[in-house]
Design brief:
The complex is a heterotrimer. Chain A is of the alpha/beta class. In chain A, 53% of the residues lie in helices and 12% in strands. Chain A has two domains: 64 residues; 199 residues, Rossmann fold. The two termini of chain A are 21 Å apart. By secondary structure, chain B is α/β, with parallel strands linked by helices. In chain B, 55% of the residues lie in helices and 11% in strands. Chain B has a six-stranded parallel β-sheet, sandwiched between helices. In chain B, helix 1 packs across helix 10 and helix 5 runs parallel beside helix 6. Chain C is mainly alpha-helical. The radius of gyration of chain C is 26 Å and the shape is extended. The chains are: A alpha/beta, B alpha/beta, C mainly alpha. The interface between B and C is large, with 77 and 57 residues.
């Protein structure tokens, strides 16, 4: 095998090893990275920032542990933003395996601020039905969520006394690892006109651009880059900004391998053409 | 109506009247959807009628032409065929399309006496798949070769399913792998593992976000509606081919509507005549009630 | 009769749901929700069927001592173990078995979360090897794909804070918002029409392969 053939057929284990090093080293040595704030991430930040203090905001957990590395930093950053702005946070979800996660994230964020459960935030948990739940919430939240995650009736929670349906809600922030965002737009925005901001994994982000373009959502936080951008905007650097360095160098490595592969491919093709001409 | 305080001070009369709501017999806000259903449905019926007794042209779909090649390759290598219907439920249209393709693939594996392995995410899909494969083997003249245990339930956890299928691929080393159905983030994990064992891979999904991963890792990819056309393409049944033509007529209608909308939008944006209003009314008509 | 009854049921159910979409009046507005509730109940029972299939397959592996039977033993043991833990947690916490502090939550936190995150993280490695293999400038289409991928990668995650990377960032935002979205919408329209035609074929009984 000549050098060009070797370059066009590098063993995948070498690629995996180098990628692992490029991801681990920046995290271990805390190598800083540049964070660019994209237009959609800024729109999401502005949508939350423009809400008057005391406005209720729904956080919908539509992800599971596998998507936690990308979505947890986004949710933490936005919760910090919401608590700083004294917004009333309502945590809920459509993926049952995400509810313990979101409970953990909510409680961790709440500890950083002087906020009280039932007065500044509530956790109403999960109910099956997805679209049906969203439609019922548009009529009366208590039609589907009459108690919170601990079993306390919503009517006995001070902040919930004046919150009945979407007309009492300033914004819905949905955290998506799947297709639940489409259903939020169809039912909550489509039927009731409630404002929505989406925070999605990098894989799902391209699917949400049509909604952003059609002004069906107010903003879009996509992937780790979006999470880091939001942390930068709330001026609270955390896990996403640290991990961005790994992501940046991983991208560089992939681009380098693509270039090497193409060099090998073109040189091989050139050699074959020369051989054919010679023959 | 007037309001009164505890001290019996009355307010001014307000223009409030009593009202009673009741459900309509027809949702007027959805008339646009009804019109489009009637229009597209008409195309469907017209072309199905026209197709009887005629041979309609459909362009080549490489992924479907490769089914026989893939099963044949597996048979020559003495390896099984793996069929993965994705992580959708029986209510997903892509899963039903996958089951129709399964019927055709199973017929081929029956003909060639090749083993077909099918791990499932949903028990209902598993039940349907067992019946389909059994029927295909019966029609292929090999009912004794059908092994129900090769079509089994794995798990309803996304990455648990991916781990399980990866394990099956690494142990069984299939010669051909079919990824047909609903896939999410696990698509690349499955496809790359399949590539690592040297299998020929034919993928198809309606999830647009997963198409790039399948295109990068698989030999053939059925993009969206090509999957739905598979049963018509493979059977060449005139009535089903007619339905594809009807679909094409609907697509042409949508293209014309997009062009009209774009022209109205550009002229309206330039504030020329009444086009601004016309564009607004045109786009508003399509907004669902 | 064996085929006619399911086809008739499919037709009647399909037509009922389409009609209920346009008629908000009772009882039509309840048709879809009722049928969805029935589907959820049937799925629950079907899960028992799936579990039986899974356990039976692995019990047979263990009995016959097939290759890898040890893994089948581990699977069945863990299945039974976590099932028992789930029942105990449900009893202790009055049905809310995933409450923080329960045994099932411990299993979830220390097993399910790390395992799921590990599988998901495999994607990073597989994307690298897939990109290395697939992004070759063989033809014009492939070259354009390669250039777009590199530009979007650098634009989304800039290495240095300078004018060039800022331009790449703005270009990649525009690229995702306009050309990428246009292509995606085209594919989505095709998928929607394909689903419509397939659904119509199923409702009218033209498509029957799934019904074997």
């Amino acid at each position: 095998m000549n050098i060009w053939e070797k370059l066009s057929k590098i063993d995948r284990r070498i690629i995996y090893l180098l990628l692992a090093l490029v991801v681990i080293i920046p995290i271990v040595f805390k190598i800083p990275s540049t964070v660019a704030v994209s237009g959609p991430a800024r729109m999401a930040f502005d949508a939350v920032d423009n809400l008057p203090p005391g406005t209720p905001i729904i956080f919908s957990t539509d992800f599971d542990p596998a998507s936690m590395p990308e979505l947890r930093p986004m949710m933490t950053a936005m919760l910090r933003h919401a608590f700083k702005k004294r917004l009333k946070v309502i945590m809920m979800g459509h993926w049952p395996t995400g509810i313990p996660l979101s409970t953990l994230i909510l409680e961790e964020a709440a500890k950083e601020f002087e906020v009280e459960y039932g007065v500044d935030y509530v956790n109403i948990g999960y109910r099956p039905g997805a679209g049906a739940v969203m439609i019922q919430m548009g009529r009366e939240i208590r039609n589907v969520f009459n108690v919170d995650i601990e079993g306390t009736p919503l009517d006995s929670l001070p902040m919930m006394k004046t919150i009945h349906n979407y007309s009492d809600i300033g914004l819905v922030a949905c955290y998506e690892a799947g297709a639940m965002g489409d259903i939020w737009v169809q039912y909550a925005w489509g039927r009731f006109g409630v404002k929505i901001v989406m925070a999605t994994t990098a894989v799902v982000t391209p699917e949400c651009y049509p909604y952003l373009g059609a002004h069906q959502i107010e903003g879009l936080i996509g992937g780790m880059a979006g999470a880091a951008a939001y942390e930068k905007l709330v001026e609270h650097p955390d896990k996403a900004m640290i991990r961005m360095s790994s992501q940046a160098w991983a991208h560089i490595l992939i681009i380098v391998f693509i270039i090497i592969g193409n060099i090998g491919y073109f040189m091989m093709r050139r050699m074959e053409k020369t051989k054919t001409k010679g023959a | 109506m007037k309001a009164q305080t505890k001290e019996k001070i009355e307010s001014e009369a307000s223009n409030v009247a009593t009202a009673k709501s009741f459900s309509q017999w027809f949702h007027k806000g959805r008339i646009n959807i009804l019109v489009l259903i009637i229009l597209f449905g008409s195309f469907f019926f017209i072309y199905v009628r026209m197709a009887k007794g005629k041979k309609l042209f459909i362009r080549k779909i490489a992924g479907l032409d490769a089914v026989e090649e893939a099963v044949g390759r597996s048979t020559e290598m003495g390896k099984p065929v793996l069929y993965c219907p994705g992580i959708g439920y029986l209510s997903d249209i892509a899963t039903i399309a996958s089951l129709t393709i399964l019927g055709k693939v199973a017929k081929k594996t029956a003909e060639y006496e090749t083993r077909i392995i099918m791990p499932n995410y949903d028990p209902l899909v598993m039940s349907a798949a067992q019946e389909i494969v059994k029927q295909s083997y019966t029609e292929g003249g090999r009912p004794d070769s059908f092994n129900e245990k090769d079509i089994f339930y794995l798990t309803q956890d996304q990455f648990g399913f991916a781990a399980g299928v990866d394990g099956i691929i690494m142990r069984e080393k299939p010669g051909a792998i079919f990824f047909q159905g609903v896939f999410f983030a696990e698509s690349l994990i499955l496809a790359e593992t399949g590539h690592s064992v040297g299998a020929i891979q034919i993928a198809g999904t309606d999830r647009v976000t997963q198409l790039p991963f399948f295109i990068a890792s698989c030999d053939y990819t059925l993009i969206g509606e090509e999957m739905f056309a598979a049963s018509s393409y493979l059977s060449r049944d005139p009535i089903m081919m007619g339905s594809i033509k009807g679909e094409d007529a609907s697509k042409l209608t949508i293209v014309i509507l997009i062009i009209v909308g774009a022209i109205l939008g550009i002229l309206g944006g330039l504030n020329i005549g009444p086009f601004g209003n016309w564009f607004y009314n045109f786009t508003n008509w399509f907004t669902r009630g | 009769m064996k085929r006619q009854i399911p086809l008739l049921l499919t037709f009647l159910t399909g037509v009922a749901i389409i009609i209920s979409f346009f008629i908000p009046h009772k009882p039509f507005n309840q048709v879809q929700d009722t049928l969805l509730d029935w589907f959820i109940i049937i799925s629950g029972f079907a899960l028992l069927l799936g579990i039986y299939s899974l356990l039976r397959k692995h019990i047979i592996h263990i009995q016959k001592k097939d290759a890898g039977w040890g893994y089948s033993l581990i699977l069945n043991s863990f299945f039974v173990g976590v099932f028992i833990v789930g029942i105990i947690s449900a009893v202790q916490f009055k049905g809310m078995s995933l409450t923080p502090g329960s045994s099932l939550y411990y299993v979830y936190d220390y097993m399910v979360i790390p395992l799921s995150a590990t599988m998901f993280s495999l994607l990073a490695f597989f994307i690298a090897s897939a990109a290395y293999r697939a992004f070759r400038a063989r033809k014009l289409n492939a070259t354009l794909l390669l250039i777009a991928a590199v530009v979007v990668m650098l634009g989304r995650v800039p290495i240095v804070d300078n004018a060039f990377f800022k331009f790449l960032g703005q270009f990649s935002d525009w690229f995702m918002l306009i050309p990428q979205m246009a292509a995606k919408r085209g594919i989505l329209i095709g998928i929607a029409l394909g689903s419509f035609a397939m659904s119509l074929r199923i409702i009218l009984g033209i498509e029957r392969t799934y019904l074997q």
